[in-house]
């Protein structure tokens, strides 16, 4: 009864591991059978391998974390050769999160992913930590329009566009991406934020700013999902500070078809299992037969 369908692809439940917080799934096998999760979104891939940023990469804040990983990843080819064979044996939906610094990077990445078993491309136009992450595309509508339109032309996979909460206007951005051909939207990525080491008298992170995530962003992310749901008709995947089944259900009631669990994987690696179980219990107690009944109900 927890099944949801996005672009004709069935998820056994609406819980997806968020990009960059679940690697390629291997490390989590120690904690729970990862095929129990509805879907797995890969670490952000770039055309070429990246070692990521130097210096402090993760920093804890009250009710959240800041990160500046810098898209460390094996590159699209490395993913296809080394990681995908493991993931594709699992009975779960695979979303390949793809970043890029130029349109051409995105197009080449998509061409490579077209011939694989990944179910979706999650187009990352929102990584704040590196130029290559694509956030430059996700702030202004006109640049987002171009990258979504051109990538959609070559993609053989359904394309979910991941929005940045740092966009100038989230509703306009969402509408623009859908007009450009996005089959679905996921939101949000991390918020641009700053932390300072007062004794060293300089920023904690080498890149000065970093991305804030975790429970502290949840109410803002929820408001954004609600607002975006007012202006688009495509499926929405809600992301931001989800730690419990109640959080997940709030996102569904705000309009999300599915949700992603990010930073809370670092607190409890099998937290998704608790969230799935909690959703099932809620549905049973409340007499909800399908999540469709409560989607966007507010
Ligand atoms: C350590 C870390 C690495 C991340 N890496 C990526 C990434 O590679 N691509 C991406 O689209 N989002 C990335 N994100 C953003 C998450 O997928 C998610 O959108 C964000 O953290 C908000 O959700 P949360 O509050 O549940 O963590 C990363 C987040 C964290 C904390």
From TrEMBL:
Location of the protein in the cell: Cytoplasm
BP-aspect Gene Ontology terms: 'de novo' pyrimidine nucleobase biosynthetic process; 'de novo' UMP biosynthetic process
Residue ranges of domain Dihydroorotate dehydrogenase catalytic in the record: 2-283
A molecular function (GO) term: dihydroorotate dehydrogenase activity
Cofactor(s), names only, from the UniProt record: FMN
Main location: cytoplasm
Catalytic activity: (S)-dihydroorotate + A = orotate + AH2
EC number per UniProt: 1.3.-.-
Record: residues binding FMN: 19, 43-44, 97, 124, 162, 188, 214, 240-241, 262-263
Residues engaged in binding substrate: 43, 67-71, 124, 189-190
GO cellular component, one term: cytoplasm
UniProt cross-references to Pfam families, sorted A to Z: DHO_dh (PF01180)
Reported function: Catalyzes the conversion of dihydroorotate to orotate.
Name under which the protein is recorded: Dihydroorotate dehydrogenase
Gene giving rise to this polypeptide: pyrD
């Amino acid at each position: 009864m927890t099944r949801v369908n996005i672009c004709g692809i069935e998820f056994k439940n609406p819980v997806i591991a968020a990009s960059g917080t679940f690697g390629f799934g291997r490390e989590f096998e120690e904690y729970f059978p990862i095929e129990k999760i509805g879907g797995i979104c890969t670490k952000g891939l770039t055309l070429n391998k990246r070692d990521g940023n130097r210096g402090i990469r993760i920093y804890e804040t009250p009710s959240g974390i800041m990160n500046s990983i810098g898209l460390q990843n094996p590159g699209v080819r490395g993913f296809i050769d080394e990681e995908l064979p493991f993931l594709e044996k699992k009975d779960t939906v695979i979303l390949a999160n793809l970043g890029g610094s130029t349109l051409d990077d995105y197009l080449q990445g998509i061409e490579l992913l077209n011939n694989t078993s990944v179910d979706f491309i999650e187009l990352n136009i929102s990584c704040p930590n590196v130029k290559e992450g694509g956030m430059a595309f996700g702030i202004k509508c006109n640049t987002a329009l171009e990258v979504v339109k051109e990538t959609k032309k070559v993609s053989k996979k359904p394309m979910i566009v991941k929005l940045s909460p740092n966009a100038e206007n989230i509703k306009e951005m969402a509408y623009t991406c859908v007009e450009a051909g996005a089959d679905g939207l996921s939101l949000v990525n991390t918020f641009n934020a700053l932390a300072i080491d007062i004794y060293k008298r300089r920023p904690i992170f080498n890149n000065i700013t970093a991305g804030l995530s975790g429970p502290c962003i949840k109410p803002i992310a929820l408001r954004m999902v609600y607002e975006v749901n007012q202006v688009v008709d495509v499926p929405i995947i809600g992301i931001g500070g989800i730690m419990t089944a109640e959080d997940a259900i709030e996102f569904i009631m705000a309009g999300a078809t599915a949700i992603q669990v990010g930073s809370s994987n670092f607190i409890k690696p099998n937290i998704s299992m608790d969230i799935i179980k909690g959703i099932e219990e809620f549905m049973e107690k409340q007499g909800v037969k399908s999540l469709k009944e409560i989607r966007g109900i507010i």
